[in-house]
Design brief:
Low-confidence stretches: 1-13, 80-90
Structural class: mainly alpha
Helix content: 40-55%
Largest sheet: 3 strands, antiparallel
Strand order of the largest sheet: 5-7-6
Mean pLDDT: 75
Number of strands: 7
Strand content: 5-15%
Number of helices: 8
Length: 243
């Protein structure tokens, strides 16, 4: 413990010096294709900088960053458009995993700046990185839309958040919207999902956990099927995936 404490004290003492050296971009330089000059940090200094940021910098999300993350997540979820080929249901373009990744990237971006706070600019950079990655790796060539199904088609035989979303879309469309219903109790919708899962092939013993159900609702909120939800009720969107 003493060794670790001494090491952290050493990093704390050197933190300001590292930040100053980084701003001066010590090391060699190279030239980009456009003629601009780029400074390259030497390997030893870069290792020291990363070690200091990793062990001593623990940025916290500001309220503004929280709001920016929520808006960025909604924006990512809308990236798949309203419908697929032949009027198919909306593709899953972002799940809670992407939100978690965006939070970690935002924190990492703040760390590399040696900042104690995660700012809106950190969130914007994280969103840019995730959006670029999804556009590069998850664009369906058939539709031109971003779809997580590119990595692995959602298997309804597996009890996952993605499969729960697809099942809930069908339940809401066929059981509620088709009958003109605009809302239902949250327990009723969860029971309908559980019944659907239990009656699927080989799924008699599977249960949908409360967390999985809420994760699916959170991913669907403000979308084509779920407008909003509370602890007791779910309000449906009027479009039902048909814009």
């Amino acid at each position: 413990q003493m060794c670790i404490r001494d090491r952290l004290n050493m990093y704390t003492d050197e933190g300001a010096q590292l930040a100053q050296k980084a701003s001066m971009a010590t090391g060699t330089s190279t030239t980009n294709a456009d003629g601009s000059e780029v400074q390259i940090l030497d390997r030893r200094f870069f290792s020291q900088y990363v070690a200091y940021a990793k062990e001593c910098v623990h940025p916290k999300l500001t309220e503004e960053a929280h709001d920016a993350l929520a808006k960025a997540y909604v924006s990512l979820r809308k990236g798949g458009g309203s419908a697929g080929v032949g009027g198919a249901t909306k593709t899953v373009t972002a799940t809670l995993r992407q939100l978690e990744s965006m939070i970690r990237l935002s924190e990492s971006h703040a760390k590399i700046r040696l900042s104690s706070e995660v700012t809106v600019n950190d969130v914007k950079e994280a969103q840019r990185l995730i959006s670029s990655a999804l556009k590069e790796a998850a664009t369906d060539p058939r539709t031109g839309l971003i779809s997580m199904d590119i990595f692995a088609a959602t298997d309804l035989s597996k009890n996952s958040v993605e499969s729960s979303i697809l099942r809930l879309e069908g339940i809401i469309k066929n059981k509620y919207l088709a009958q003109g219903k605009k809302s239902c109790s949250i327990n009723e919708l969860r029971n309908a999902l559980q019944e659907e899962v239990s009656h699927s092939g080989g799924g008699g013993s599977r249960n949908v956990s409360s967390q999985q159900f809420l994760d699916a609702l959170a991913a669907m909120a403000d979308g084509d099927y779920v407008r909003s939800y509370t602890s007791t009720s779910v309000n449906f969107a009027s479009t039902g995936g048909n814009n």
